[in-house]
Amino acid sequence: MSTRKRAGSSATTRRPLTRERILRAALDLIDRDGVQGLSMRKLGAELGVEAMSLYNHVPDKDAVLDGVVELLWEQAAAKVDDAGRWQSQARALAAAIRETAHAHPSAYPLVMTRGVLPQPVFRLGGRLLSSLREGGFGELAPHAMLALASHATSQALAEVTWYGQPPPTGEVTDVEQWPLIVGPAAELPRYDVDAAFTLGLELLIEALEARLARQQV
Predict the structure, then answer these.
(1) Does the residue 31 lie in any domain?
(2) Which one, of 22, 15, 69, lies nearest residue 42 by Cα?
């Protein structure tokens, strides 16, 4: 009797291995050790299982990395609802992407390098696209959506990869040929990324509003 009870207790306390658990553990591992620190062996150890057990849920490491991208977009999508005009939608989308990037700076570059577009991307894009069409952009709506999303994703990537880093210590050649670049580059460690992100987004919104106004004349 007591033996069956102990066995049953062990079975009920063991968490089942699922694709979602694997992806969340992979994201935690990347957050801690970077993308280069991820391996199927380490991921199995993180979950307390043999690496071979993972292959019942994910085919390989590439599938794990693509799944991490899906998870990042899912986190961003969860921060955005479908209320408000296109301007508020654009601001909410940009803020969600940027917040996700800063929450997972080691993993976020995968969004730009893996070349996958998981389902949450289409949910996010679809919401903004619908609001842009409702706002009167017509055939321009997809281009406006891409411009707004591109600003958010690329600016967020720059912030978590090289903004705020110390200036290069190696020899810089032909400095005289690039005075407009070298000067601002030296200021990057003190760059106000919050202001830059907001300014770029608001300039885009203002330009799109102006384009819409001309279109409606």
Answers:
(1) no
(2) 22
Give Cβ neighbours of residue 159 (< 8 Å, ≥ 6 apart): 98, 101, 102, 193, 197
Residue 192 lies in a domain: yes
**pLDDT band per the 50, 70, 90 thresholds, residue 82:** confident
Distance CA 69, CA 63 (A): 10
Q: Is the pTM of this model over 0.70?
A: yes
In this structure, is residue 2 part of a structural domain?
no
Rounded Cα distance between 90 and 149, Å, is 8
Q: For residue 191, is it within any domain?
A: yes
pLDDT digits (tens, 9 = 90+) for 120-172: 999 999 999 999 999 999 999 999 999 999 999 999 999 998 765 555 555 55
Domain count, the chain: 1
Confidence band of 189 (pLDDT split at 50, 70, 90):
low
For position 147, which CATH number holds?
1.10.357.10
Question: Domain residues for 112?
Answer: 82-164+174-217
C-alpha dihedral sign at 48, 54, 60, 62 = negative
